[in-house]
Structures are given as C-alpha cells and as structure tokens.
Amino acid sequence: MTKAASYLLWRSDFSLIRNYLLDHLKVMISDSTGIPPRLLPKGFELATYGGFTGSFLEADATLNESLRAAYQSGPPRALPFRYGYIDAAKKYHLMVLTRATEP
C-alpha cells in the first residue's frame, strides 16, 4: 500500500524500489503516486476508482497521460472517500494493482 508518495515511484531514479515492488507484490493499493500504467510490465491488471485528471504535484506528462487514459478506459467506479492525494481537479482516486499471471 502506498499513498501521498510525491510521485517518486514515477521517477527513473526510483526504479530500483519500483522494480522491487513489481517483483514481489500480489496486490498494491495506491493513490496516483503508485506505479503508473505506462511503467507496468505485462502480467499486471489495474483497477481504478474515483477520477483522475492530472497529478496533484508536478510530474511526468507522459505518465500523467497514461494514468488519465486508464481512468477513462476502465469502468467508472465511485470512490466516496479520500485516499492519499487528491488529483489536480481535487478528485478522489484510488488504484488497485494486481498480478494477473505469474512472471
């Protein structure tokens, strides 16, 4: 579980920690500061809750777009509570990342 992590897992200099998490997690609950879809290897599924228009803090535009696209493409799921950061439009959001298959 991660929240309010200042988008550190989005950064290349945090790839060691991000890759460790990807190698060992079965389920990860996060706000938008978790691992964005563009950085996910095959074998993971991302379920989104609430809404996302952009990162609360300045962060990579390409990764922002990949996360925005994930929220737009998935089925709408309400999120009636705040978990971690709000997004740029003050929307609540939450992501559930699961391992779909064994690596």
Protein topology:
Blueprint: H1 15-24, E1 27-30, E2 44-50, H2 61-73, E3 93-99
Antiparallel strand pairs: 1-3, 2-3
Short overview:
The protein is of the alpha+beta class and 103 residues long. Helices cover 22% and strands 17% of the residues.
Give a written overview of the molecule.
The chain is α+β, with helices and mostly antiparallel strands and 103 residues long. It has one domain. It contains 2 helices and 3 strands; from the N terminus they run αββαβ. It has a 3-stranded antiparallel beta sheet with strand order 1-3-2, with no helix packed on it. The longest helix has 13 residues. The radius of gyration is 12 Å and the shape is globular.
